[in-house]
């Protein structure tokens, strides 16, 4: 990946962070946080286990980096991460469960994930960070050492909750229906009745209204629209650009405990402004081939880009049968192989994170793997089934790149970093319908690129002053604007909501 694209991605992260305030103290900090649970009841563990089966919170106090938040709700969470012999369970914290309006860092809920299948402690953090770099809806993730009644319980991934706060930050509103694709969110048609979907999805907002008609309509469009009208009908109900990018990441990262494989671990949100569903990533801890679906490591590295290894998923199958969607998917895989899923982009991140968490991993006596497994997880397979991260990235990239090149795709960024000298003023940024570009002098050429280097817009011979850039048909995401004058070439990253 060239230096320009690396800078774009980092700058994109900084802009996204500025657009958010809630959770910044937790998720924008490089420190490993300290979270302490205090339970007053002597049999608190039995209470937690009983309440897990009842899906109820247990009363306790939490102290985060020394700040006490009293009378919060705490409960076990997870499926396979819970059903193991260890007492290092995953937890959900609800500041608001027993004290209305109570928050920490303006957040009501937080998740502590135990890393039960990942000796590296890196899979969830790296994958979520990379998804966010691409402008894709995904929760933020960092690290925390957990103590329970004074005893160190180990190192955890601290993960943001997908709730109304998350929706308002990412989409600018939170009044629509949010569904979780669990436990069996394959998006298969099961008839027109809302109740036919109650056992396979969870409605997370507007529960009292309990209106599932929008989800039923989406599934109907996916499954029952004739091929000759599928593109137009799907565009009207789903942000397909976001889904295609998420799908490409599932495939590139071989994240099979997802819609691609098991058919769950995602949210979809019906945006009340755009009136389309948005795809939201969730639970990526088994990426980099750590959910094997009956395959060995070599087979995972060479998973075909058109594969649905655990049975057809109608949304993917119908998109692959549409030439426009199939091409867009292949092109985004091309972008990932050139800029994201590469050693140049990921290895330094992994090395830095491993160094940061090493002492906490060593101190974690309840972890699921040995210190040696952690030390070697970047370069050596663990337990014969968990892929070493760096070889996996290198070999997976080569395999996918060969497929794409055989299709005639040239997987490069197409942007010339030497031409870019200086930022230019753009406001508002991020923007929804338009933004103003402050042209400092007469402009010979103004260009807009996506992050794959494709030029989407060109304007020539513009006077100095304010130029109004319209959203037009552009999808939400991150773009690069360049302005060529007689004396200089200016550049600026812009974000469209």
Write the layout of secondary structure elements.
Blueprint: H1 3-18, H2 24-27, E1 33-38, H3 44-54, E2 58-64, E3 67-77, E4 90-94, E5 109-113, H4 123-133, E6 141-148, E7 151-160, H5 164-171, E8 178-180, E9 202-203, H6 213-224, H7 227-235, H8 240-252, E10 266-270, E11 277-281, H9 297-301, H10 314-320, H11 323-339, H12 343-363, H13 371-376, H14 389-406, E12 426-427, E13 434-439, E14 443-450, E15 455-462, E16 465-470, E17 477-485, E18 489-496
Parallel strand pairs: 1-6
Antiparallel strand pairs: 1-2, 2-3, 3-4, 4-5, 5-7, 6-7, 8-9, 8-10, 10-11, 12-13, 13-16, 14-15, 14-17, 17-18
Helix pairs in contact: 8-11, 11-14
Quick structural overview:
It contains 14 helices and 18 strands. The chain is α+β, with helices and mostly antiparallel strands. The chain starts with a helix and ends with a strand.
Protein architecture, described:
With 497 residues, the protein is of the alpha+beta class. It has three domains: 3-160, no CATH class; 171-339, no CATH class; 417-496, Sandwich (Immunoglobulin-like), CATH 2.60.40. 32% of the residues lie in helices and 23% in strands. It is built from 14 helices and 18 strands. Strands 1-2-3-4-5-7-6 form a seven-stranded mixed beta barrel. The radius of gyration is 23 Å and the shape is globular. The chain starts with a helix and ends with a strand. Residues 1-19 and 414-422 have low confidence and may be disordered.
